[in-house]
Structure formats: C-alpha cells, structure tokens
Amino acid sequence: MPCERTRYQERIVEVGMYFEHEGARLYYDRQGSGAPLLMLHGWGGRADSFLPAIRDFQAVRTVYAVDFPGHGNSPEPPEPWSVTEYMELIRAFIRRMGIEGTDIMAHSFGGRVALLLAATYPEAVGKMVLTGCAGLRPKPSGKKKARTRVYRALRALADNGLTRRLCPKTVERTREALVQKFGSPDYRQLSPAMRRTFNRVIAQDLQPCLRRIQASTLLIWGTEDRDTPLWMGETMEREIPDAALIRFEGAGHFAYLDRYGEFRAIAWKFLIG
C-alpha cells in the first residue's frame, strides 16, 4: 500500500508506513492529532481490528495502529519470537515515534505485549485499556492433558530418527495431518515458522509481571470469553496495583466489538475524561 500523507487542521493521516528494527519490519498507520494512543491487536488480527476505535479516537488523539510481525502487512519475524521480542520491537517503535508515555489500547495477544512492556519499561506507557487480555497460563483440563498425550505419542511414532531417514516426505505429511487434527484453529493456519513463534508466545506466563505494572489499567472482559476466560481478568485486577475490571455480560472474546458502544464510552471516559 502506498504511503499517503495529508494535513487538514493539523490532523495527520499516514497510511502504509513501515518501521524497521533489527531485521524486523512493522507496518503501521498514524491518524489524528493530540496525545498518542497506541493500538495493539490480537493474534491473527491486524491494525484494522480496531477500525471503529481508530475512527472515533482519532478525533482527539494521534492514533498509532500496527500490524505485528507475521500479521497483516508485516512480514514474519526473522526467527521464532516470544512475547519478549514483540515487546522490544514495540518499545523501539515508541522511541522512534517519540511517543514516550503513550496510552495503549490492546486486545488479547496485544495485551500480552502491553503487560510486558508496562512491567519492563514503565516510562513508555501511560494508561492502558486491555480487553480480553492474554498472558496467563491456564491449568489444562484432564481432557486436554489426555489429548496432548495422544498427540505426542502419535508424533513420536511418526517422527523419529528411523522414519526421517527412510521416508522424510511421509514424515512431513504425517506431522501436518496431526497438526490439522489436534491443533487449535489459530495454530493450524500458521506457517511452520509462525507455529514455533506461537508455541513460544503461549508458553510465556506473564503473571509474575503484574505486580510491577505502574500504569493505571482498565480491564474490559466478556463474561462468556472462552479464549481468555474471565478468571484471567479477575487475576489481573487483583494483582496489578492500579487496575479495575468491567464485565460485559454475555459478550465473548471480542467484547470490544460485541458491545462497541459501551466499550467506546467507557474507554473514552478513562482515557479522555
């Protein structure tokens, strides 16, 4: 997408820009004027995941919306990443844009990055609105443990030193068949490199970071969220020193879109006043 820059009454629109840092490329849009507001999308999303909020908040804020590497218009990371590498990239982006102390609005995986950023570099973050925020490791159910054991046993039978020497192509096909049967929808659609990144991301438990977060944090959660269950929001409210949790009854993982009018009003009051 070409870069377009226009100014109207000090309002900035920059579409299709790239930020490069240590071999990674980060696509971003910048729109509006005023104090900065950085929007971080969830796994499998992109900057456009926040379109309604971008449309509304750019009236009073300079809104930065990014595509994380491996999503949208941003190429995959140069190697498998964890949350830490994504966080360091966003930290470098904040420095380059000159938006220290930016407020953040984040969903799901974007919340993981925001949590680690706020705990590691408190000076980089102002207030945070986190919705359906990921980052805490759930205890697997008995059913999930059994399913994992079956998957690992089948993979060990299909993929070992002998099978790789005798029929490597069959091994690759069998591994992919097992992924398609046992993997989550998010995982199945990823490239091999992004699957390794996904595994590193979900293995990283951010609960130890929560008590180090200084930013005022508003948590907005759907009570029917199955991807990041409500107990995660309740734990974050309890452990982040300055946090409050608002529940949207009956909403799911995309509570901010399911009930956008309410989300906008609450986030606006918190961020703008």
From TrEMBL:
Transmembrane segments: none annotated. Pfam families: Abhydrolase_6 (PF12697). Gene3D superfamilies: alpha/beta hydrolase. Keywords: Hydrolase. The keyword Hydrolase applies. One of its GO terms (cellular component) is membrane. Residues 37-264 form the AB hydrolase-1 domain. One of its GO terms (molecular function) is hydrolase activity. The keyword Hydrolase applies. This is Alpha/beta hydrolase. It comes from Candidatus Pullichristensenella excrementigallinarum.
